[in-house]
Amino acid sequence: MVKLNDRLSLKTMKLIAGIERHGNLSLAAEELHIVVSAASRRIRFLEDSLGFRLIERAGRGIGLTVPGRAIATHAHKILADIDQLEGELQDITDGVLEQIRLSVSGPALFHDLPEQLRTFLGSYPYVRLSVEEQTSNAVAESVLDGRAELGILLGAEVSPGLRLRPYRCDALGIVVPPAHPLAGRTTVRFAELLDQDWVLPPDSAIGNLLAQKAASHGAELVTRIRVHGIASTSRVVQGGLGITVLPMRSAAREVASRGLVSIPLAESWASCNLHLATLRNAILSPAMAALVDILTAQPERSVRPPVCSSGPDLGGR
Q1: Closest to 72 in 3D by CA, of 144, 3, 22
Q2: Helices H, strands E: what count in the chain?
């Protein structure tokens, strides 16, 4: 077979990706600012070189054959890498010498993370720092897949491919309106909550944990509404549409501002600690190592912070 690097140019890869996207040769050619006849010649040249068809009729348009789809799949990856490279080179031109992508679970934003990041950027102005909020499951996947260099997630039972460092300690508690029958309690057992209507985030570490614990009691939680984020969840609970479980320290300010009541869960598994996550074998750059040091430093408080539990922890996946 002919070597692809002799026949498959970036423009041809863009053309094949465009055909897959539009199902139309004219639109794919228009994106590249070439005429349709030139686009057809490019496809025929590659087909003749490889010895098989790349496009075929599909209804009123055209589609890719199996070999064509294989080329398109790799073309998307290659073109995305080139776009990223162009962005990094532009950053260097602009004086940015390093990029750190931070993926965080929502509760981390309710601690002192913004202040810590400001401290870091004050010492490392040449670093471009991007922050994306995700569920803990997605944070772990982003770090494992290389879409983030650093993550902050709930729990410690995650992939063995990650190295975890303690970030902040927390504990799970239920959040209810002040008129709820449980509002006067000092603690509550999870088994008492199985018949409640719930407000929970979709595909979250906390939601998955609660579902597992309910199943161990032979029950299934009735989730009335699924919503992302501490603020949105608290607003729905305030409206009387159900109860929820949140990290108590992370959610304390939001819960108090809405006049809600939080009650600790009296369960050994209700610790809810945040961890920093990097690839297990990652070699940290000086800037990355400095960021990790800033994030893992204990905050100065008027009272001693709680010691992170070494007992059962909230699974991050």
Answers
A1: 22
A2: 10, 12
Query: What are the pLDDT digits (tens) for 78-91?
Result: 888 888 777 767 76
**CA proximity to 62, closest of 8, 9, 26:** 26
Tokens 């040449």 belong to residue: 126
Please give the pLDDT value at position 263.
Answer: 92
Q: Which residues contact 136 (CB under 8 A, 6 or more apart)?
A: 105, 153, 154, 155, 204, 205, 316, 317
Q: Which CATH architecture has domain 4-92?
A: Orthogonal Bundle (1.10)
CB neighbours (10 Å) of residue 113? 19
Two tokens, residue 127: 């670093």
Specify which residues 243 forms β-bridges with.
198
pTM above 0.90, yes or no: no
What is the tens place of the pLDDT at every residue in 217-252?
998 888 888 888 788 899 999 998 899 988 888 888
DSSP for 22-65 reads: HS-HHHHHHHTT--HHHHHHHHHHHHHHHTS--EEEETTEEEE-
- The type of residue at 89 is L
CATH of domain 95-169+272-296: 3.40.190.10
